[in-house]
Design a protein that fits this description.
The structure holds 2 protein chains of 2 kinds.
Chain A lengths: L1 H29 L4 H10 L5 H26 L7 H18 L5 H30 L3 H21 L5 H6 L27 H18 L1 H11 L1 H6 L4 H28 L10 H11 L4 H24 L6 H20 L2 H12 L11
Helix pairs in contact in A: 1-14, 1-15, 2-13, 3-8, 3-11, 3-12, 3-13, 4-5, 4-6, 4-11, 4-12, 5-6, 5-11, 8-9, 9-11, 12-13, 12-14
Chain B lengths: L2 H30 L7 H18 L9 H26 L4 H23 L12 E2 L9 H5 L1 E2 L1 H19 L1 H11 L1 H6 L4 H27 L11 H11 L4 H23 L6 H18 L22
Antiparallel strand pairs in B: 1-2
Helix pairs in contact in B: 1-6, 1-9, 1-10, 1-11, 2-3, 2-4, 2-9, 2-10, 3-4, 3-9, 6-7, 7-9, 10-11, 10-12, 11-12
Classes of the chains: A mainly alpha, B mainly alpha.
Chain lengths: 366, 315
């Protein structure tokens, strides 16, 4: 049965992707662009030069980190829509740390900056987690509201206490923080591009998350609380506690994504720094089946989509908002398909369907 | 605070509440029927854009006087279509409603943003609806200006409060909706098609969210922008919790939040020394506070909110 589940599952992913492409093609036709040309640009454009290739990886880094966090939360039975806000608070904390300790050596400062980012994100997520565990506040609503609040905090700090004094002198009016000290930079992997060490960090953290969730008792408890809260409670698992823990961990990953973005790519806190990674991360996590092994390829795929859609905006004038249409349809398809994936009757029907295409093995009655 | 300031806050707050009121009344039907429609935000975005588009194109020409009416009709129709899509995903395919809602939000946001860039481009305004002072009532000192000197959509929205109360509590359809959200199995054994009722409720809710979005672009902002809805769809969902799934409670919630919003504007206009960003935060903080305090309200809510109905399943 398992073999069919895999086959069936992957065919559903393909169908979801086709549906998303169809949805996007409709919108593209409505604005008078050629869907084929646009898709060709999206999927081949980034592969034309080294810069495009590394940009895919640059985009994949925050996507992997955010999606890991979201997967941890979802697996533990709490829905975290707040990665966007958690990233912003993580960026604030990381930037503040780096700017406060400019003279510290790199070996100390860099880990400290990333930890500060994690702490910031964890703190912001803990608000929603605690409200859910203690007061029963719907975490989807609270994390969405916290996103808006974090965005205001972020602009407040960028325009106020953390603004670059140089900006005030030249009066350029773009709110941004001072440049981080060089000791807080993540090294570039390929000189001349923006690809940085964060990629390796993200991949290492992937393995850590897999180990934590599937190879430790604590991770088992988190997943048990998420899969069947009632049974977990009878088994003596502290379900509210595990919700808060999962949410903190989830927020910490979003915060790390923010810290890595600021110290690896931009080197200062700027406006619109998250570029929607918080929401794209949800799609990546779902597309990657909430598992680290799925999240990595999904993140590369969405990195490609993001770079490609930027290229279509520049070359063909197709707005980059287009990507939201694709992601929205993908989410709707994936969550719809899940019910069939988990439904034994549907699986049986699928097994019979696929069995028709299988050559009967020798000795097996056909 | 001076008398004028209070008057300004109140008279601004009433029309501000309309978009929230329409969307959350619609969401109330969804939730009463047992569906948690977080896609409200996306439906509002589409409503705001598709309502704006006809009014924008019909600025001149023979149809010009009807541009706004056509806009509202198109927005409501778009809301029904998106409501049907959400029903297909959450009722028929029994998908996780919270995440599906985020998907619908992205879809609505993305489609509206993409089409807007192409068909309209930059910031362009529309005429909007003129205020229509109710004869007699608008002369009442103080209250007249606050309550009875607005554009017709404001009155329509406020009339929808008693109308949806009647629909929900005094008609057979309202009974079916409430049964579908509270006792779907019992409703099913009484011969009510639970899933069909949920489809209908989602269509009604979608139409109202579409109207709410169109109100934002046609009457409140008189233009469209990518971030016009700014989370009002999510706030509308939260207001339904706050209002304990009753039309009057929802009205109270919508007024409370729009007053917070007009207070925020008044703070800025009055030049009071208070960081602008914290003023903008105010309504969102209020939502979280209210949700935390409204814990006990859940006891009166639909018990099967968010639970897909499946005849074959025992639960």
């Amino acid at each position: 049965m398992n073999r069919f589940k895999l086959l069936y599952g992957s065919s559903i992913v393909v169908l979801a992707a086709l549906a998303a492409a169809l949805g996007a093609a409709l919108v593209l036709t409505a604005i008078g662009a050629s869907p084929v040309d646009t898709f060709v640009t999206i999927f081949t454009g980034p592969f034309k030069d080294v810069f495009g290739l590394t940009e895919i990886l640059v985009r994949a880094v925050p996507l992997i980190l955010v999606a890991l966090g979201i997967a941890i939360a979802f697996r533990s039975g709490i829905i975290n829509i707040g990665a966007e806000g958690q990233m912003l608070i993580g960026i604030l904390a990381a930037t503040a740390t780096a700017l406060a300790l400019p003279a510290w050596p790199k070996a100390v400062l860099l880990p400290l900056v990333i930890l500060a980012g994690a702490a910031g994100g964890a703190f912001w997520a803990a608000i929603a987690g605690t409200l859910r565990a203690r007061l029963g506040v719907n975490e989807i609503l609270s994390t969405v509201m916290l996103n808006y609040i974090a965005a205001q905090f972020y602009t407040f700090f960028l325009r106020g206490p953390m603004i670059d004094p140089g900006e005030l002198e030249t009066g350029s009016g773009t709110p941004q923080s001072m440049r981080l000290p060089e000791a807080a930079f993540l090294d570039r992997l390929v000189p001349g591009t923006r690809l940085h060490m964060g990629l390796i960090l993200a991949l290492v953290l992937c393995v850590c998350v897999w180990f934590l969730l599937w190879r430790t008792t604590w991770g088992f408890r988190l997943r048990a609380a998420g899969a069947e809260a009632k049974a977990a409670r009878y088994a003596g698992i502290n379900v509210p506690g595990s919700l808060v823990a999962a949410m903190c961990l989830s927020g910490a990953f979003a915060g790390i994504a923010g810290a890595v973005e600021v110290s690896g790519v931009h080197h200062r806190a700027i406006e619109n720094i998250t570029s929607g990674y918080g929401f794209a991360g949800i799609v990546v996590a779902l597309f990657g089946a909430l598992h680290p092994a799925g999240i990595v390829p999904a993140a590369f795929f969405f990195g490609l989509l993001l770079v490609g859609s930027d290229m279509t905006q520049r070359s063909a004038g197709v707005p980059a908002n287009m990507i939201l249409v694709l992601m929205g349809v993908l989410i709707l398809c994936i969550v719809s398909a899940k019910m069939y994936l988990n439904n034994p009757y549907a699986q049986e029907r699928a097994a019979r369907f696929f069995a028709r295409f299988r050559k009967p093995d020798a000795g097996e009655p056909s | 605070m001076s008398h004028d300031l209070v008057y300004n806050i109140l008279s601004l707050g009433v029309p501000f509440s309309v978009a929230l009121l329409l969307a959350s009344l619609g969401e109330m039907f969804n939730q009463r029927a047992g569906v948690f429609n977080l896609g409200c935000e996306g439906i509002m975005c589409m409503g705001a854009f598709l309502g704006f588009l006809p009014a924008f194109y019909l600025k001149t020409g023979p149809l010009a006087p009807y541009g706004i009416v056509i806009g509202f009709a198109v927005a409501a129709a778009a809301g029904v279509v998106l409501g049907l899509l959400f029903a297909l995903v959450t009722v028929t395919f029994r998908a996780e409603q919270g995440i599906a809602g985020i998907g619908l939000q992205m879809l609505g946001w993305g489609v509206a943003g993409t089409l807007f860039r192409h068909f309209v481009g930059g910031v362009t305004g529309v005429e909007g609806l003129a205020a229509w002072a109710i004869p007699g009532l608008s002369r009442i000192p103080f209250l007249g200006g606050i309550l009875f000197n607005h554009n017709p959509m404001v009155y329509i929205a406020f009339l929808m409060v008693p109308a949806s109360w009647y629909l929900l509590f005094k008609t057979p359809w309202g009974l079916k909706v409430r049964a579908a959200g509270t006792e779907p199995r019992a409703a099913d054994s009484m011969g009510i098609n639970v899933n069909r009722v949920r489809y209908q409720a989602l269509m009604v809710g979608g139409a109202m969210a579409g109207l709410g979005g169109a109100y934002l672009s046609l009457c409140q902002a008189k233009m469209f922008a990518d971030d016009l809805v700014a989370g009002r769809g999510f706030i509308a969902v939260a207001l339904v919790y706050f209002g304990r799934w009753s039309p009057l409670g929802v009205l109270g919630g919508a007024l409370l939040f729009s007053l917070a919003q007009s207070l925020q504007l008044a703070i800025q206009v009055a030049g009071i020394k208070f960081p602008y960003e914290f003023a903008v935060m105010l309504p969102y903080v209020l939502v979280i506070l209210v949700l935390s305090l409204a814990r006990k309200a859940r006891m009166r809510g639909p018990t099967h909110l968010g639970v897909p109905f499946n005849r074959e399943m025992r639960y």
